Amino acid sequence: MLEPQADRVRTLGEWEESWKKDNIGFHMDHVNPMLANNIDKVVNGRKGVRFFFPLCGKAVDMKWLADRGHSVVGVEICEKAVRQFFEENNMMYSEEAAGGVPGAKVFKNSEKSISLYQCDLYNFSSSVEGQFGAIWDRGSLVAINPQDREKYAALMISLMAKDCRYLVDNLLYNPTLYKGPPFFVPDEQLHSLFGHCCNIELLQSADALTDRTRKWGLDYLTENVHLLTPKS
Questions:
Q1: DSSP one-letter code for 184
Q2: Which residues is 165 bridged to in the sheet?
Q3: Predicted pLDDT at 148
Q4: Which secondary-structure segment (H or E) carries 84?
Q5: Could you read off the pLDDT of 120-133 as tens digits, one per residue?
Q6: How far is it between the farthest Cα atoms of the chain?
Q7: What pTM value is reported for the model?
Q8: Local structure of 197: helix, strand or coil
Q9: Which of 20, 112, 208, 230 is the most exposed, having the fewest neighbouring CB atoms within 10 Å of its CB?
Q10: Burial zone of 57 (CB within 10 Å; 0-12 exposed, 13-18 middle, 19+ buried)
Q11: Rounded to an integer, what distance in angstroms lies between the CA atom of residue 229 and that of residue 43?
């Protein structure tokens, strides 16, 4: 079932163009219910957890977590998305060159402890911000080019602290009907990418077919959220 999308490529320039044209149907203007429903399992009794958001866009989830005393580091290719996050949430921010990431900028709100790096995700590493106690991967694994998934998984694993709890969202549909993104990522592939070093638990599964996604030609769309934790 992976074959129809195996060679599909969407360039960083195409993603930036989507933001420029406000063609961002993937953005949610409210906290993602998959995060809200499962936050206790991610936080797991800890206070001040450091969250990583790959391909963060301007997700309101980041402020929601920061308001609860957690800190957030995100990576996003599009500068417009990063600026809009702070501006739409009425947050002051600083802007500076990002040490350790050539050509990148980092935008920060120190009061809420949010740092967003504007760069190619694959130029980011644990040498920049260390490892994280949690990762919220909504719209990232399903957005990267399918041929990059092993490279992506290796990066995510390298960013996981020993107590990390990684919440990842994946989508199930018939990939012969829609070319993506978001791409079809079956549960089996999560296990092949992460199962060698992580325990993987399905926390929630939901019917995600909407008027918007029906227009893609889909007859079903299932959204699953899994919790990944490092094997001891």
A1: P
A2: 134
A3: 98
A4: helix 79-88
A5: 999 999 999 999 99
A6: 47
A7: 0.96
A8: coil
A9: 20
A10: buried
A11: 12
Coil, strand or helix at 99: coil
Q: For the segment 151-207, what is each residue's pLDDT rounded down to a tens digit?
A: 999 999 999 999 999 999 999 999 999 999 999 999 999 999 999 999 999 999 999
| Residue 128 in tokens | 């920049």
Distances (CA, A) of 173 to 49, 164, 181, 187, 203: 33, 29, 12, 12, 19
DSSP letter for each residue of 88-117: HTT---EEEE-TTSTT-EEEEETTTTEEEE
Give residue for tokens 């420029």. 20
* Contact between residue 223 and residue 138 where contact means Cβ atoms under 8 Å apart: no
CB 35 within 8 A of CB 205: no
Cα torsion angle, 147, 151, 155, 158, sign: positive
Tell me the torsion sign for CA atoms 132, 65, 111, 27.
positive
CB 19 within 8 A of CB 80: yes
- Helix or strand holding residue 76 (H, E): strand 71-76
Coil/strand/helix, residue 231:
coil
DSSP codes, 162-178:
EEEEEEEEEEE--TTT-
Match 């995060």 to its residue by tokens: 35
> Among 117, 64, 118, 120, which residue's Cα sits nearest to residue 91?
64
